[in-house]
Design a protein that fits this description.
Elements (H helix, E strand, L loop, with lengths): L17 E13 L4 E7 L2 E7 L5 H9 L5 E10 L12 E12 L16 H6 L1 H4 L3 H23 L3 E2 L17 E3 L7 E3 L5 H9 L4 E9 L11 E10 L3 H20 L8 E3 H8 L13 E2 L1 H4 L5 H4 L3 E7 L7 H12 L9 E5 L5 E3 L7 H10 L7 E7 L1 H18 L10 E5 L4 E4 L4 E4 L26 E6 L2 E8 L4 H10 L4 H15 L6 E7 H9 L29 H6 L12
Parallel strand pairs: 3-5, 6-9, 11-17
Antiparallel strand pairs: 1-2, 1-4, 2-3, 4-5, 7-8, 9-10, 10-22, 12-13, 13-16, 14-15, 14-16, 17-20, 18-19, 20-21, 21-22
The structure holds one RNA strand of 77 nucleotides.
RNA sequence: GGUGGCGUAGUUCAGUUGGUUAGAAUGCCGGCCUGUCACGCCGGAGGUCGCGAGUUCGAGUCUCGUCGUCACCGCCA
């Protein structure tokens, strides 16, 4: 036994007890004749006291102590003469009788404090030190609590937690696969799962009825603050259910998590068709914490000799509340912002709705006060508001207006991290057209069932077929998504042909699933939540890296262990691999 | 693949129009200090200005390239 108590639990009622604590030296304060040491572990901080009465042995040990030394101290708990109300153990201290250095520390490269002086780079390189810091540790504790809550909810609902293989088979659809060469099968590769999709459907065929798993998934695509090459899903599938059953079950899970983990009651849980999300928010993951909806003003702005609008496919606007007083400089900044290639607008037209009821716009030459009043009325803009107008190709401008809306929401402080607005986005298109390869791709995945009422459109206008697919969106973050699956092998074959697979290709890639469906497949549907995103949302963070113990950087590198890395030629030989790395030009 | 930001002491940053010996805070080391808790006071050490080329009498500063890192677009069924 290295300790009798943790550094977070001793109180005044322990006064007089002899205790042994072990932990890290947070800080040493020498005041000449006496010295204080803050001893830290994951539970808290306890103050150790040494004075002139301490033995020479202790004094010489004490002299050597530096930050992050691991020590063990034994002594009596006593009341402090001057108390610290800021920490839980602030009324007591340990009068140390024995001191042992268990493990010394070199000087750490940054301070191990709530507000560290270290930047991201160095904290990632020394992640094991960063994890000692309370805010980082608390994020991971939150993650553990949430995983626990997910399991208790789903177990309670009779879901069976089942593991599925990590070494599986590469499929052409979807994201790029991470692949693993097989030593025993020369020239052949496993793939790491992008999700356990086909296995969970097979578990439904197997009669498991309700499956879940908190599981790692892998996608070899470029990364973002909210995307890691390996990430964790709460993966679920249910048999003998319709879309509504899945939505209500996982609405239940979401509400349960908010209540159990954050003590937040979620009452409103709207559904929004995909088409409405795109039209009003310019996004399939609308942030509904604030309004500022996109309005189509194409009809009323055309025919006034303003060529830019007359030639545009679509003219859309949003109204930013209380921004009529924006200066020329602010408007120029916004204009530059929307003209960035990432947003892609050609320019920005504004209308200031002045407090006196008049309107001042950048296109006054073409539009009368009455015209502008009409715009304002469509945009629900009142005196003091600023209308921002973009024009151009419809889908591009909806996207740009959506981005501008979020930017304005951010500038106006409308995105409160403690407000949570979940919704289901439903009725996604089944397919999306890819210009480059001139074919349709499954928007969700190839096993997603079309809506029954749209099946007749599959041949005539496949692009307009809606799917029984749904996403859970909270505060503009895509938390999860799923679909009702096809369980009819004929319809599945039809889907494969729409996606441009020959019978043989479909057989080679997905034969095992299609075979399974021949043996009595129950109607089934499923969903997966991005667990990292959900935790970061709960923690009020923008990057999922902060809720992952050992994350990777933008380029998919782990800067702590320095991976990925080359392997020995012998390893390559054993795997029957030859490298073909292109030389750098220069 | 593309766009942009950043890279200066262990760390976080400042560094003017290109001009003498590159600064601050913090951390670190030494000294003093018996109630501190971001202890205080005094002193000290610490720099390949990411790397490479170029412009210039002269580059931390300007140009180009490159590497690293972050954010975004493409991509992510």
């Amino acid at each position: 036994m290295y300790r009798t108590h943790t550094c977070g639990e001793l109180r005044l009622e322990n006064q007089g007890n002899e205790v042994t604590l072990a932990g890290w030296v947070q800080r040493k304060r020498e005041l000449g004749g006496m010295t204080f040491v803050d001893l830290r572990d994951r539970y808290g901080i306890t103050q150790l006291v040494f004075d002139e009465n301490s033995s020479d042995a202790i004094t010489s040990q004490l002299k050597k102590l530096g930050r992050e030394f691991v020590i063990q101290a034994t002594g009596l708990v006593r009341e402090r003469s001057s108390k610290n109300k800021n920490i839980a153990t602030g009324e007591i201290e340990i009068d140390v009788k024995e001191l042992k250095v268990l493990s010394p520390s070199v000087v750490p490269p940054f301070t191990i404090e709530d507000e560290s002086d270290g930047g991201d780079d160095i904290r990632m390189k020394y992640r094991y030190l960063d994890l000692r810091r309370t805010p980082v540790r608390e994020n991971l504790i939150l993650r553990a609590q949430m995983a626990h809550a997910v399991r208790s909810y789903l177990n309670e609902q009779d879901f069976i937690e089942t593991e599925t293989p990590v070494l599986i088979k590469s499929t052409p659809e979807g994201a790029r696969d991470f692949v693993v060469p097989s030593r025993m099968n020369e020239g052949e590769f496993y793939a790491l799962p992008q999700s356990p999709q086909q296995f969970k459907q097979l578990l439904m065929v197997a009669g498991f009825d309700r499956y879940y798993q908190i599981v790692k998934c892998f996608r070899d695509e470029d990364l973002r603050a909210d995307r890691q090459p390996e990430f964790t899903q709460i993966d679920c599938e249910m048999a003998f259910v319709e879309q509504e059953d899945v939505l209500s079950t996982f609405e239940g899970l979401t509400k349960y998590l908010f209540k159990a983990v954050k003590n937040v009651e979620i009452t409103d849980f709207p559904r929004m068709p995909y088409s409405e999300a795109i039209a009003n928010y310019g996004s399939d993951k609308p942030d509904t914490r604030f309004e500022m909806l996109i309005k189509d003003i194409s009809e009323v702005v055309k025919g006034k000799d303003f060529k830019v609008f007359d030639d545009a496919e679509f003219i859309g606007a949003i109204s930013a509340e209380g921004c009529a007083n924006y200066t020329r400089k602010q408007l120029d900044a916004l204009t530059n912002w929307v003209k960035r290639p990432q947003v892609g607008a050609k320019g920005l037209v504004y209308v200031k709705c002045n407090e006196d009821g008049s309107y001042k716009s950048s296109v006054d030459k073409f539009y009368s006060q009455e015209d502008l009043q009409q715009w304002a009325s469509i945009c629900n803009a009142k005196a003091g508001d600023l209308i921002l107008v973009l024009s151009g190709d419809k889908s591009a401008m909806l996207y740009a207006l959506g981005a501008l809306r979020l930017e304005m929401g951010k500038q106006l402080g409308l995105m409160d991290k403690n407000t949570f607005k979940p919704l289901w986005v439903v009725d996604f298109p089944l397919l999306e057209w890819d210009e480059e390869s001139q074919r349709h791709y499954a928007m969700h995945h190839p096993f997603t069932s079309p809506k029954a009422e749209d099946i007749h459109l599959l041949d005539s206008e496949p692009g307009n077929v809606r799917a029984n697919a749904y996403d859970l969106v909270i505060n503009g973050v895509e938390i999860g998504g799923g679909s009702v699956r096809i369980f009819d092998s004929e319809l599945q074959a039809k889907m494969f042909s729409l996606l441009g697979f020959t019978k043989e290709e479909a057989e080679a890639q997905f034969g095992f699933l299609m075979n399974a469906f021949k043996y009595g497949a129950p109607p089934h549907a499923g969903i997966a939540f991005g667990f990292d995103r959900l935790v970061s949302l709960f923690a009020g963070l923008d990057s999922i890296r902060d809720v992952i113990a050992f994350p990777k950087n933008n380029a998919g590198r782990d800067v702590m262990i320095d991976s990925p890395s080359p392997i020995a030629i012998e390893q390559l030989d054993e795997l029957s691999l030859k490298l073909n790395v292109k030389p750098q030009d220069n």
